[in-house]
């Protein structure tokens, strides 16, 4: 098992890529802490893991709220006595350019996608150091590498997440805390499905997203989850500050 007895927090683990990652981590021996603002969805993930005889804990948390994040990390260390892995996966999406986007919507997206990851890192890193080190994997996006049209706040939040990762990597390497990020392309998740469903021609919208990348398809959640697993595991001890693109070749063009 690649994560045997490791304690791992995964945010946004109530659905999609976060849920797939949580299940995979548990299969690899981790004691997985499912963090989500949606209590029903988060508990469903925990139930899936426990049904396989594996260990999991759900903590309902709004990651944009500093008091809830600090409380969540404290509960984890009280329950398990340590923290080894943090996966910042929670994220939200919005359309709009710099002129059209509403200021409150800008703040909401930045608060979850960037501030939330910042807070989780801020309160997790001291616990990792106390235990001799740890590893952080941030889930950014291909949109953090190259801007996509008409989604400025999502682009900026994911670009910021990449540099949050790099900054933590250089600041805490001497403390044996690693930080890396994955940048998935458009992936088969509820978030993507909801976007396509809102388009005038959902099938055409989907094909357009597939055809812009050399692999000519969307990603699958487990493909990104295995990248996260590698960076979270002891198989990547020299990797820190890395940006792993898992996008069907899109950003290679």
TrEMBL record:
<protein>
    <submittedName>
        <fullName>Glucose 1-dehydrogenase</fullName>
        <ecNumber>1.1.1.47</ecNumber>
    </submittedName>
</protein>
<dbReference type="InterPro" id="IPR002347">
    <property type="entry name" value="SDR_fam"/>
</dbReference>
<dbReference type="GO" id="GO:0047936">
    <property type="term" value="F:glucose 1-dehydrogenase [NAD(P)+] activity"/>
</dbReference>
<dbReference type="Pfam" id="PF13561">
    <property type="entry name" value="adh_short_C2"/>
</dbReference>
<dbReference type="InterPro" id="IPR020904">
    <property type="entry name" value="Sc_DH/Rdtase_CS"/>
</dbReference>
<dbReference type="InterPro" id="IPR036291">
    <property type="entry name" value="NAD(P)-bd_dom_sf"/>
</dbReference>
<comment type="similarity">
    <text>Belongs to the short-chain dehydrogenases/reductases (SDR) family.</text>
</comment>
<keyword id="KW-0560">Oxidoreductase</keyword>
């Amino acid at each position: 098992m690649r994560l045997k007895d490791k304690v791992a927090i995964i945010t946004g683990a109530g659905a999609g890529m976060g849920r797939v990652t949580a299940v995979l981590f548990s299969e690899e021996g981790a004691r997985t802490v499912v963090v989500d603002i949606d209590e029903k969805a988060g508990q469903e993930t925990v139930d899936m893991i426990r049904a396989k005889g594996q260990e999991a804990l759900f903590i309902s948390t709004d990651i944009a709220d500093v008091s809830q994040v600090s409380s969540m990390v404290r509960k984890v260390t009280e329950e398990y006595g340590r923290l080894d892995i943090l996966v910042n996966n929670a994220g939200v999406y919005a359309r709009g350019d710099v002129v059209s986007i509403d200021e409150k919507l800008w703040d909401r997206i930045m608060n979850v996608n960037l501030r939330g990851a910042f807070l989780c890192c801020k309160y997790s890193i001291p616990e990792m150091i106390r235990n001799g080190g740890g590893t952080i994997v941030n889930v950014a996006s291909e949109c953090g590498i190259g801007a996509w049209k008409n989604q400025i706040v999502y682009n900026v939040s994911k670009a910021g997440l990449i540099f949050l990762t790099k900054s933590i990597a250089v600041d805490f390497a001497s403390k044996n805390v690693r930080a890396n990020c994955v940048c998935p392309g458009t992936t088969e998740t509820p978030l993507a499905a909801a976007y396509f469903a809102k388009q005038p021609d959902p099938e055409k919208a989907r094909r357009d997203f597939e055809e812009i990348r050399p692999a000519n398809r969307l990603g699958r959640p487990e493909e990104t989850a295995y990248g996260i697993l590698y960076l979270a595991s002891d198989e990547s001890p020299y990797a820190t500050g890395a940006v792993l693109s898992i996008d069907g070749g899109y950003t290679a063009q």
